[in-house]
Amino acid sequence: MKPKKIFILLPDGVGLRNFAFTSFVEIGEQMGWEVVFWNQTPFDLTELGYKEIKLKGKPRAFTDLLKRAKISAELDHFEEKFDDPVYQTYKFPAGNKNIKSKIKNAVVTQLTKTYRGEKGLEKLRSKLKDSERKSPFYKQCREVLKREKPDFIFCTNQRPVNAIAPLTAGQDLGIPTSTFIFSWDNLPKATMVIEPDFYFVWSEYMKEELLNYYPFVKKDQIFITGSPQFEPHFNLKLRETREQFFEENNLDPTKEYICFSGDDSTTSPDDPQYLNDLAKAVKKLNKSKDYNLGIIFRRCPVDFSNRYDRTLETYKDLIVPVAPRWKKLGDQWNTILPTKEDLQLQVNTIIHSKAVINLGSSMVFDFAILEKPCLFLHYDVENKQDENWGVEKIYNFVHFRSMPTGKEVIWLRSKEEIESKLEAALKEAPAEVQRAKTWFNKINQTPAEKASERIWEGIDKITEKST
Fold first, then answer.
1. Domains and CATH numbers, the chain
2. Residue 324, CB half-sphere, CA atoms under 13 Å: how many?
3. What is the CA radius of gyration of the chain?
4. What is the pLDDT of residues 404-431, one digit of tens each?
């Protein structure tokens, strides 16, 4: 019997971590699927032994303007629908450097005004597809699909505009299409650029979000699976001994380490100051309480800036940078791609750290899985890099409302609190860890290590119905 063929659409590098570097492909092959990556990233998946077809081409410029208008109009609609101004905070200021960008911005503004509300958004979704049907990119995608005849198309990420043409071509040829909602905070941000036939979500909580934000989606189009991004934490083959990890990363075997997990410069422009405050607190603990602590600094993978250099130099006796193992294959942020090696690095960074400190990152879940506490920074520094930025803006985002009690992390509400609260976290397994695990089980289906299997079971159900 000929195996069914699936196209795993990789419109950007976001899906590599979840679907190329985990056991996702192997599970599908064991279930009788022929797995082919439809790959628009610079990453060569044949090096991992996978089948791939390179996806070449780009969306029309007008399609991108429609996408921008759709996001803006959706956020306006969400604000009105839920009577909540928070949705305006998800908007980024548009560049206005030259005449061309000013014209584009004017077009987006007019489109946003024209297509308001549910009916307007429905028209925008149709216009996005119709626009791409006029492109050479769509025609090429259609030709590939007619030649290869896949039974199913699975898009790894709902955000990229370049995913519209391949999915629309699939739908026009009667091939079932789907997408995975790749992050826990995506739906409130109006990042649903594509409109596939089926949706794979992390949890019942995310399913309800999807239905609330996009009422045209029906319940039977949604599959609750969890996210494969957490599966490596359960893979014992990835784990290294303390000696191995410390030797590979130039860590002092006499020290215990705290992990400082950095954000990008937009999310947390004051990260260098936070790292500096942590280093001061750790230095005091070492001196006054006879601790021997160090700091592992894991920067945001797409942050190659020099903004931390002064702090790293000042506290080089305390802070050891352990940089994410991502590859920079181009000048744009979306050409900085994860690697399989970084999965192992991240897992062992967690295992061999006592706790993590950051600003509102989902690393709280990664550490909770491995029974480690998370301390969330919740104060503004004295000399802010951006006066329009503040921690309240971050923690007011909708996805933090999923916290069951608000006590799932240890809150650092001033730099003066770091020393005492860090010491308390180190002395015993805090109750916050168990509460964080409860939070994690709310936003991600359990058992977390079975997400890939559940996705494949969903794909099987869909394709059985369509044959």
1. 4-59+135-227+448-466 (3.40.50.2000), 61-129 (no CATH), 235-443 (3.40.50.2000)
2. 22
3. 23
4. 999 999 999 999 999 999 999 998 768 9
